[in-house]
């Protein structure tokens, strides 16, 4: 892929670069504490699968080889991920998916986000003194569990875009669950570091008989999950939402005595996945599309791109101070709007003007080259009047980074970008008798329902879907062809991870692996966060000289990217995790 315009140095960039400290990507050892493993871009002509685990990638490729569609492959991948990466996603959680259907010439957004129980109230995460609970006091147990949405979403998408019979898609996961799979280094490390697996069933599954955590290389079987999958394969998604499995989900969530939930079988039976219109916008000569609210990811990515479009990002380069400063300032502005305006659109009127090009040009003018905003105020997107600017409070939510992303293209021209999660690592830490973990997704709501006497848009309400940062993305070129299929886990930092990669691909023409592996940098309307263990750390004093507070942090993205280059697919999986790419 080449940038849409010749590389040139704009005058503003030249002035600023006089202050800049250029830096190059740090040398990488084969393994780092973050789990870094050196990887290379994979090339294929017809079809490709990129997932967070080699066994899941193999399952998706096997389905494509049998003539399956990208959606078919995504279903098989999700079932295997539930087994081999249970800390991140599964049928006990939720997901967002974009589907490009070449035959129907459509792009659809699928919303499988969890919903709050009908009994949920805005003060759900406040203590007796009216103060927000500590995070893990809210997470561990049934109070944090929302109605799972992933399976209903996948079934809905399969009805519209599937080519193989539903039962076939469960075969790889059933086989692995029955025969066992080798515990990966990442899963073993996550178990070993987890201190909140207090439920006896979950502890017994993830630990040996002597209480030690499962080690990398051990074989793990899950016959209970195999039985669950067999039932779903036979009966469809209803097997999870009505009947024995549904009753067990309710019993598991509500029966945790230390922190019970209030789920009912009626909550599960009434759950519906949504088909939503994607949010799309122009970035230079490209059309960039993401999922709409209740995810903030699609809007925020478009906002950041729109605010950066006036700068010559191709010339500035990926690894210099100007790039880091501009990117962080755009992030401050986008996250400021996100925190105030974005929530479940069935409960809150999300302003349509958040991605208006004129509005984004106005916001972009707040970005200065010689100083930082520090903390950005939300804007007044049309059609909001200035006097209505303070209708909602800011509403912080403690989104966590245990999520997974799937990118797939098939031989029919279809493409899927799907981001899937149970929220924090191991979710609510509650495992059902059916062998899968339940989410803690309700902690993605704002804990405090109001701020300064104003209601928070993302407050808890019965039946509502919590805001997300998930940002599965599909990009089209000027001829309307799919050229990028991308996404990442990473909690609220997902927006920065995805936007970083899109700029590297679209503006700078980087190889997919090189684009993913760039140091992660960005602001969520707070300190500029610089990825620990990378050369980004060297930017801290220069950014601080511009007035930016900085933090050196682990930024464990898990990007899966597929790019069309000269008629072929080129795919890459984030070197920070254990993902792989396959294609032919």
Fold and architecture overview:
The chain has 584 residues and is α+β, with helices and mostly antiparallel strands. It is 31% helix and 16% strand. It contains 19 helices and 21 strands. It has helices spanning 11-17, 54-65, 70-84, 135-139, 150-161, 171-179, 185-193, 200-206, 223-235, 238-241, 244-254, 265-269, 297-308, 313-316, 321-341, 357-364, 494-506, 512-517, 540-545, and strands at 42-44, 48-51, 94-101, 106-112, 181-182, 219-220, 274-276, 279-283, 286-290, 402-409, 415-423, 450-451, 454-455, 473-476, 482-486, 521-523, 528-531, 550-553, 560-565, 568-573, 580-583. The strands form five sheets. It has a seven-stranded antiparallel beta sheet with strand order 1-20-19-15-14-9-8. Helix 19 (540-545) links the parallel strand 17 (528-531) and strand 18 (550-553). The protein starts with 10 loop residues before the first helix and ends with a strand. Residues 2-34 and 385-393 have low confidence and may be disordered.
Main features:
7-stranded antiparallel sheet, about 15% strand, alpha+beta, about 575 residues, about 30% helix
What's the layout of helices and strands?
Elements: H1 11-17, E1 42-44, E2 48-51, H2 54-65, H3 70-84, E3 94-101, E4 106-112, H4 135-139, H5 150-161, H6 171-179, E5 181-182, H7 185-193, H8 200-206, E6 219-220, H9 223-235, H10 238-241, H11 244-254, H12 265-269, E7 274-276, E8 279-283, E9 286-290, H13 297-308, H14 313-316, H15 321-341, H16 357-364, E10 402-409, E11 415-423, E12 450-451, E13 454-455, E14 473-476, E15 482-486, H17 494-506, H18 512-517, E16 521-523, E17 528-531, H19 540-545, E18 550-553, E19 560-565, E20 568-573, E21 580-583
Parallel strand pairs: 17-18
Antiparallel strand pairs: 1-20, 2-10, 2-21, 3-4, 3-11, 4-7, 5-6, 8-9, 9-14, 10-11, 12-13, 14-15, 15-19, 16-17, 19-20
Helix pairs in contact: 2-3, 3-5, 3-6, 6-9, 13-15, 13-16, 13-17
């Amino acid at each position: 892929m080449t940038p849409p315009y010749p590389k040139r140095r704009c005058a503003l960039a030249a002035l600023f670069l006089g202050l800049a400290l250029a830096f190059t990507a740090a040398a990488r050892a084969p393994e780092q504490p973050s789990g870094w493993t050196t990887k290379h871009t994979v090339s294929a002509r017809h079809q490709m699968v990129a997932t967070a685990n080699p066994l899941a990638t193999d399952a998706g490729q096997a389905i494509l080889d049998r003539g399956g569609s990208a959606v078919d492959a995504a279903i098989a991948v999700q079932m295997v991920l539930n087994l081999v990466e249970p800390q991140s996603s599964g049928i006990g959680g939720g997901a967002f998916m974009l589907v490009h259907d070449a035959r129907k010439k459509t792009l659809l957004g699928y919303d499988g986000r969890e919903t709050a129980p009908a009994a949920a109230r805005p003060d759900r995460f406040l203590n007796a003194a009216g103060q927000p609970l500590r995070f893990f006091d809210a997470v561990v147990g049934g109070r944090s569990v929302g109605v799972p949405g992933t399976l209903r979403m996948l079934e809905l998408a399969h009805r519209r875009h599937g080519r193989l019979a539903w039962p076939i898609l469960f075969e790889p996961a059933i086989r692995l669950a029955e025969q066992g799979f080798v515990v990966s280094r990442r899963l073993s490390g996550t178990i070993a570091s987890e201190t909140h697996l207090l439920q006896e069933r979950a502890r017994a599954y993830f630990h040996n008989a002597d209480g030690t955590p499962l080690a990398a290389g051990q074989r793990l079987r899950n016959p209970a999950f195999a039985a669950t999958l067999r039932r779903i394969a036979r009966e469809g998604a209803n097997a999870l939402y009505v009947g024995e499995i549904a009753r067990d989900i309710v019993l598991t969530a509500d029966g945790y005595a230390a922190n019970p939930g209030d789920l009912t079988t009626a909550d599960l039976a009434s759950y519906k996945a949504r088909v939503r219109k994607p949010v799309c916008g122009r970035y230079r000569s490209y059309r960039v599309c993401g999922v709409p609210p209740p995810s903030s990811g699609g809007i925020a990515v478009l906002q950041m791109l729109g605010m950066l479009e006036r700068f010559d990002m191709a010339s500035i380069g990926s690894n210099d101070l100007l790039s880091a400063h501009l990117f962080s300032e755009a992030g401050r502005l986008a996250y400021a709007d996100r925190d105030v305006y974005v929530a479940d659109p069935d409960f809150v009127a999300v302003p349509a003007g958040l991605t208006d090009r004129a509005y984004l040009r106005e916001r972009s003018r707040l970005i200065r080259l010689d100083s930082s905003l520090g903390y950005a105020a939300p804007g007044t997107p049309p059609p909001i009047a200035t006097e209505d600017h303070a209708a909602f409070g800011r509403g912080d939510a403690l989104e966590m980074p245990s999520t997974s992303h799937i990118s797939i293209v098939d031989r029919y021209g279809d493409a899927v970008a799907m981001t899937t999660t149970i929220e924090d690592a191991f979710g609510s830490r509650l495992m059902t008798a059916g062998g899968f973990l339940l989410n803690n997704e309700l902690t993605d709501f704002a804990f405090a329902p109001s701020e300064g006497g104003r209601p928070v848009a993302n407050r808890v309400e019965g039946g509502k879907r919590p805001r997300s940062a998930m940002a599965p993305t599909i990009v089209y070129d000027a001829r309307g062809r799919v050229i990028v299929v991308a996404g990442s886990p990473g909690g609220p930092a997902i927006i920065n991870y995805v936007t970083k990669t899109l700029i590297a691909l679209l503006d700078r023409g980087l190889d997919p692996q090189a684009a993913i592996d760039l140091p992660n940098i960005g602001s969520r309307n707070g300190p500029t966060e610089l990825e620990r263990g990378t050369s980004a750390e060297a930017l801290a004093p220069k950014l601080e000289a511009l007035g930016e507070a900085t933090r050196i942090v682990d930024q464990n993205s898990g990007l899966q990217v597929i790019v069309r280059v000269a008629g072929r697919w080129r795919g890459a999986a984030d070197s920070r995790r254990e993902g792989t790419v396959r294609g032919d």
